[in-house]
Amino acid sequence: MNLIDLVEQKQQKTDLDPFDVGDTVKVHVIIKEGDKERIQVFKGDVISKRGRGLGASFTVRKVSFGIGVERIFPLHARTIKKIEVVKKGKVRRAKLYYLRGLKGKAAKIKEAK
Amino acid sequence: MIEGLIGKKIGMTQSFDAEGNAVPVTVIKAGPCTVVQKKNQEKDGYVALQLGLVEEKSVRKPNKPTTGHFKKTGLAPLRMLKEFRSADQAGIKEGDQVLVDIFQVGEKVHVTGTSKGKGFQGVVKRWGFRGGRASHGSMFHRAPGSIGASSFPSRVTKGKRMGGHMGHARITARNLTVIGLDKENNLLLVKGAVPGPRGSYVLIRKENFGTR
Asked: Which of A4, A76, A79 minimises the CB distance to B27?
């Protein structure tokens, strides 16, 4: 077996819910403030997934008060407590960067049945 | 005390530290090594341990001198032998196994390897010269420019940085933190990059190697 994979496997999360590009997710992020920890939820559409193994990451986009906000999360980061799939989306692209140029109803992703 | 090991660079990946930050990590297959020879003051003129890296592949056709050398300890011939100066040889026998557990997580190590060969390179890549502008009629792109004055001194000063062979040199990456150990698979994880391509031999030494 590949030794790099062997090393990476130890740190990879195995309890992740599968999600795809186009899905609406809630990412529960652990935020440290001094010695206190709290959880912040970032809800938005997954517009890209990249990488494999421990270095994989995904991008979540949401529109907050009319301003588009994107966050890139490492998939296996310890700071992510949970990734909750709210809605499955139906998309025909692997990367939904075209959403950046769209607003309102045009930027809506169709729900998968 | 054994303060170093021979290893093989496997490749790079990342890891997460206690705060959750991603840390770049190099995976090294370190050891298992065997003590092939103990060099002493009386016979050899210096004190050192000769370690050999035990690999899956054996030496296909060991020549006579190699066969003779390994016959003394009764070991199978090994491809990679390296000496580590070591004043304190108490309790170490020829034929002893050395494993990654001589290192500890959090410890600093030096890793020596042969850097990737870059071939014949110009001054821009080799020494970081800025070169000239690319366009607007410029006729000076990546040339070194002036290499010195004229009639005095009538020669180029020694050590003048010019184009030439780059890479494939012995380089030591110092003070790399040990991030993890895997004794079962003989793996050592150090923070940051290590010289050389994947699959190349590296020497791993403890931080204060040779100064004790």
From this structure: A4
- C-alpha–C-alpha distance, residues B204 and B99, integer Å: 12
Structure tokens belonging to residue B70: 């390994």
Specify the pTM.
0.81
Q: By the 8 A CB rule, do B70 and B36 touch? A: yes
CB pairs under 8 A between A and B: 39
Q: Per CATH, is B4-116+172-206 categorized as 2.40.30.10?
A: yes
Whether the CB-CB separation of A48 and A21 falls below 8 Å is answered with: yes
Span B63-114, pLDDT tens digits:
888 888 888 888 888 888 888 887 777 777 777 888 888 888 888 999 999 9
- Alpha-carbon distance A64 to A96, whole Å? 18
Give the ipTM: 0.75
Cα separation, A26 vs A11, whole angstroms: 22
Please choose, from the candidates B15, B49, B16, B45, the residue with its C-alpha nearest in 3D space to the C-alpha of residue B33: B49
- The three-state secondary structure class of B55 is coil
Considering only CB atoms, B11 lies closest to which of A4, A11, A76, namely A4
Query: What are the domain boundaries of chain B?
Result: 4-116+172-206, 121-167
